[in-house]
Write a structure and sequence with these properties.
- This protein has seven helices and 14 strands.
- Helices cover 32% and strands 27% of the residues.
- It is α+β, with helices and mostly antiparallel strands.
- It is globular and about 50 Å long.
- β8 and β9 form a beta hairpin.
- Bound molecules: D-MYO-inositol-1-phosphate and calcium ion (2 copies).
- The site of one calcium ion (CA) has 5 residues, from β4 and α6.
- The site of one calcium ion (CA) has 6 residues, from β4.
Amino acid sequence: MNSDKVIEEIRRAVLSAGEIITSAARTELKIDEKTSSRDLVTQYDKLVQEKLIAAISEALPGAQFVSEESAEKGDIYAENAFIIDPIDGTTNFIHSMGNCAISVAWYKSGEPFYGAVYDPNAKEFFEAKSGEGAFLNSEPIHISNQTLENSIVLFGTAPYNPELADLTFDLVRKIFGKCQDVRRMGSAALDICHVACGRAGLYFEATLSPWDYAAAALILKESGGEFVNLSGHEIKLSLEKTSVVAGSKNIISESSIINH
Ligand code: IPD
Ligand code: CA
Ligand code: CA
């Protein structure tokens, strides 16, 4: 199957996984704790993951998978590696807050090739193919050209790493004085996409896993944004967690968030 056909299959699988999320039987949620009472997984995270892996494996036999809820992680640098977050924003999902997403990234030998982030509640499908721009529901998107003063800033609280709370909230306090307002939305993948389409000027989080950002980072870069860590270095896909800053070059510089 050629790569465009595989992408078609990914779109189809992601859209149908979105229906699993929007039609989930909310009264029958089975919630398990992973590392703490903040780090949760439901039967729907696992079901979405299973459906996505099955559909992509059929379209591209031999593909490797690095998926959040799967204990066995494939080779992230394989010729065809898929980095999947079946539900990004599980805590929102559990509390019926909306704002959660399915994130699927296709990397070839460690380089981004295609990324999809789908918010099934808002019916917003963000996607990008390397070198071909970024799209929201098939319309081209671009990062904001506003100043920080006229922008909303999004951040994540790195909830599974409470030792990073002081760093996070120190940064939030500093940036709050320089921007229009701050928001903590609850899905890193969507936060990065909100920056990619110009709704927010900046997003940062003190630590993220590859499945949180792999697809959204490509969408952001294809929309003209910068994706770096809190030391200002470009982020190379890795199984290791990393801090993340997403925005336009100007807003990142105005924020003084790098090496604060
Ligand atoms: C989490 C969300 C959250 C972010 C966390 C992520 P999950 O992903 O993206 O917004 O603050 O760092 O781990 O656990 O809901 O897939
Ligand atoms: Ca996630
Ligand atoms: Ca998840």
